[in-house]
Amino acid sequence: xxxxxxxxxxxxxxxxxxxxxxxxxxxxxxxxxxxxxxxxxxxxxxxxxxxxxxxxxxxxxxxxxxxxxxxxxxxxxxxxxxxxxxxxxxxxxxxxxxxxxxxxxxxxxxxxxxxxxxxxxxxxxxxxxxxxxxxxxxxxxxxxxxxxxxxxxxxxxxxxxxxxxxxxxxxxxxxxxxxxxxxxxxxxxxxxxxxxxxxxxxxxxxxxxxxxxxxxxxxxxxxxxxxxxxxxxxxxxxxxxxxxxxxxxxxxxxxxxxxxxxxxxxxxxxxxxxxxxxxxxxxxxxxxxxxxxxxxxxxxxxxxxxxxxxxxxxxxxxxxxxxxxxxxxxxxxxxxxxxxxxxxxxxxxxxxxxxxxxxxxxxxxxxxxxxxxxxxxxxxxxxxxxxxxxxxxxxxxxxxxxxxxxxxxxxxxxxxxxxxxxxxxxxxxxxxxxxxxxxxxxxxxxxxxxxxxxxxxxxxxxxxxxxxxxxxxxxxxxxxxxxxxxxxxxxxxxxxxxxxxxxxxxxxxxxxxxxxxxxxxxxxxxxxxxxxxxxxxxxxxxxxxxxxxxxxxxxxxxxxxxxxxxxxxxxxxxxxxxxxxxxxxxxxxxxxxxxxxxx
Length: 599
Prior knowledge:
Blueprint: H1 16-29, H2 31-63, H3 70-118, H4 121-126, H5 129-171, H6 174-221, H7 223-228, H8 232-285, H9 290-331, E1 353-361, E2 367-376, E3 381-386, H10 392-399, E4 407-412, E5 415-416, H11 422-427, E6 429-432, H12 443-448, H13 456-465, H14 469-474, H15 492-506, E7 510-514, H16 522-535, E8 540-544, E9 556-561, E10 564-569, H17 571-577, H18 580-596
Helix pairs in contact: 1-3, 2-3, 2-5, 2-9, 3-5, 3-9, 5-6, 5-9, 6-8, 6-9, 8-9, 13-15, 17-18
């Protein structure tokens, strides 16, 4: 049964001050702009507080029957200037600070994006793409709100409250300041307590929002699978289940907000009423003028608005911190595979690859490779075969350092790959993977991705070598044809040939073909195999194969069985041994014969 209300402990609360400290370097970078913006801000508040003082003088002047007309005129002019100055300084503040906010958002978003690319394959196999994208989106919006509210609302509001309290304390009965102080204490305490209680609803909304977005994107990406199994209703129910919990939390969030606003208004109303009674009493006693009454009233209005807004600001800051915490939590995910501080660029002389007693496991309960040792001489081709799950594709992932070996080491030209930079290592290796995924862009873009600075002629040449140029030219938009999400507009064979062209364009020293022709028909496979053979000449090549017919020309073949090397040798030698390889060859020959026989 799907839950329809939120229950249980609140989602984990990241330290708010830790989140705020994360933003300080971005403010320090523009400390000059921050200082100028704060100057404009304080000036705006001084102008705002001066307005009621000037209004008192105007009222008192007009209350005198013998008043000179020039004096109220000057005061009225000053009143207008102060009103304009208050607005002008506020606008100047926003203009000066805009670059600070936008640069912080850009830097943090870029930092998170780069960090996600630095995380290991293990993280990306477990991540939920839709949820991560929503976390980043909410987090960057939270930065903007947090910076604006903290610097431009909390600080100036406290300044304004302090100025008003000081003026009232100096000019009038101390009870005016005492009432303001008591009202402020009750208001802040009430706001803090209720807002902290409400945060559980906000975090629940964020969690359910991320989960719903994850399910939506996952379902849309797998659109065909949903249709194959007629599961549109099932997907809608899964999506709606997250939205239902989100809805419940959102309703609680809104109703509790209404209660908070009502409570804040009640506290302020009581304080203002008491102050007006005090002011009216002093006017009747003759110790205060009508202008003083107006001054207190206007001050109360000016205090009410920032005080009420202070509660709103605090809520928004807490909401922003809640929105940001998931994004900053991503930055705290440790990078599993890191460059050694002393790592140097890989120097490829011939491209000799050596696995020495390599062990590997994805986790303690799932060992994959055991004491694996073999070498690929420079410019030679080594093929790895075996049943599914034997650990063949893991070799490519280890060579690229998507993971580090649990034991032993991997060398390229006698350089331990853990002691060289990952950038130089991956620049030296090209791969045509078994499952080719393309960017939702043009064919030209996807081929050029192998070397973004390649010339147009190089890209065309790579497509010709991959035997896909003629197909591309037959399309209405040719190389500018879009391939769709994950390349779904192309067939499996077409995607594979784009991947081959992309790798050819990269022109690496070492090549890996991970069942590179698995999606091709027999005719295309032979053409591609000829091209692959041509480009792998004088390059160290690792071929991971399922079809044994594609690797009969390999210089050496290794047969993996449950993570161990069961046999090794040339195609002929392995057949003569009549072992595991010979058995696999026989089975595949029988399958090939049965497929070619007419029904």
